Amino acid sequence: MEKASQPLQEFGGKEDDEDLLTLSLSTGPRSSAPAPPSSPFVQETHQLICLPSTPVPLSPPTSFFQQFLSIPQAPPLPPYHNYQTHSPNLNPDHNATVPQEIASTSRPCRSRRNPFQTPKQGKTDTVPAPYPWATTQRATVHSLDYLLSHNITTISGEVKCKKCEKIYKIEYDLQQKFTEVASFISRNKLSMHDRAPSDWMYPTLPSCEFCGSYLKPVLPKKKSINWLFLLLGQMLGCCKLSELKYFCKHTHNHRTGAKDRVLYLAYLGLCKQLDPKGPFDI
Length: 282
Description:
By secondary structure, this protein is mostly helical. It has a domain at about 145-275. The chain has a three-stranded antiparallel beta sheet. It is built from nine helices and three strands; from the N terminus they run H-H-H-H-E-E-H-H-E-H-H-H. The chain starts with a helix and ends in an 8-residue tail after the last helix. Strand 1 (about 155-160) and strand 2 (about 165-175) form a beta hairpin. It is about 30% helix and about 5% strand.
């Protein structure tokens, strides 16, 4: 107390009890955080804001929500335990009951066709026979017995020079040329490994009489290709991959893979058509 009274003595003079200011400090409960310094000239005021007890009305819903709320709701489905499923393998005597709401909304079952083994819309499996040795089925020829019985012993086709573009007509003896192809397959089938050899991939073509260039077979539209002529001349390798796939498609053979694979299937497929009993199983 002596230290507190010294400044008053220096400032005012006498130390009177009336001139002294008494300061009273009140301490609250102790806390871990330090309390801010209090001042006798500052008084804190707190104002309590009271909310109205009556609810405030909300604005009416917009037109979008009105339309959304006006949509009729679908009737709820019956609970799951009201119907049972049927498993013919587990209980053949158990009858399945399906709710009428579910049965009416189910789609009818339909069979799915294979788009790779059937012709496109507007096309048929049969076409007019382009040659006497061809059938009305696409990419199909008559058997050897049928051709020999109808006195068809010579197969002809057209070839074109690549340089001078002169067109020739070449004829092959049916029985002789087919024997050459069939004997080649029987000797080398195991070593081919389901792939066409280089002799089929790059066939030896005849030469032109005028310019000496090589002759390539004339390939018309796919439905009019002279398949038997190409087989006997071993010139199926001159066909494009799309043309070989066309043959495999209409003869129901696997037609995916490289060209040597599809070419192998074309050779054996044609030989199988000529001699169904021969060793030409794919």
